[in-house]
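Write out the 3D structure for:
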Amino acid sequence: MLALITGTGALPSVVAREQSSSPMVCALEGYAPDELEVDHWFRIETIGTLLHLLKQRGVTDVCFCGAIQRPSFNPLRLDARTMPLVPTIAKAVKAGEDAALRAVIGLFETRGMTVRGAHELVPDLLPTSGVLSKTPVPNDIDMQVKAAEEVSIEQGRADEGQSCVIRKGQVIAREDARGTDAMLRGLLDRPVKPMPPAGDDPFAAAMDFVGDMLDDAADWLSGPVAEARAQTSGGIFFKAPKPGQDRRIDLPTIGPSTARAAIAARLDGLVLEAGGVMVLDRGEVVRLLDEEGLFLWVR
């Protein structure tokens, strides 16, 4: 029996729909999947009970699918079955996101369950190599892609996001915890930092705030990155897995919302690592990009 451990978005319902029998759907509290009825809600503080329930139900395979941000953790809500797991979870979280994911996988595997990637259960999610759009890839793209690959390796080493935007050979946006679409939307305007709380020394707080703004302005108004960012169009969106990551969990995904965000940001096109990025509703993604003249290259 298959269980889906889900977050938000359309991926869980796509995986569920493609199975010959209905999987058990277990969702992290606060992260409801799109168009999918949840059989069991859980928290990080009750993951021990979730593991016990899955064994009771005869679950043999699990698939992690859907988006989450780092969930909160309240020690007061720990249940008895999760208490023995706290040292393992705490150690993994301190080591970074990838280590935490590997630790979670280990919790399921040590109980005899096989962790399956969404792309294993729905192979069509991984597009084949090549240019999928009508718009061809520009001849001068090699410099852009090389810069993107270097940024991807750097982000992977720092345990950060899986995508970036390159323009004129310069990185002008990097994915963070907010996700891919938020990164692309951020290209449309420059967010204003809020004034920090004054605390015991309001003057010092104000000076720190002004200093941060001046530093940002210096970065913004000078140098090749600033020149690239100042352009209102052009550049590529690049997405790939982190180097060495376990591809059974947190494999990068794009969909129609990503295509719309890239169009709104007036990019030239999207470059995806072959075999490493899933595409939801591929037909719609290609249609949207074709309508606006953006390319989609799986390489």
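The domain at 126-193+230-298 is CATH 3.40.140.80 (Cytidine Deaminase; domain 2).
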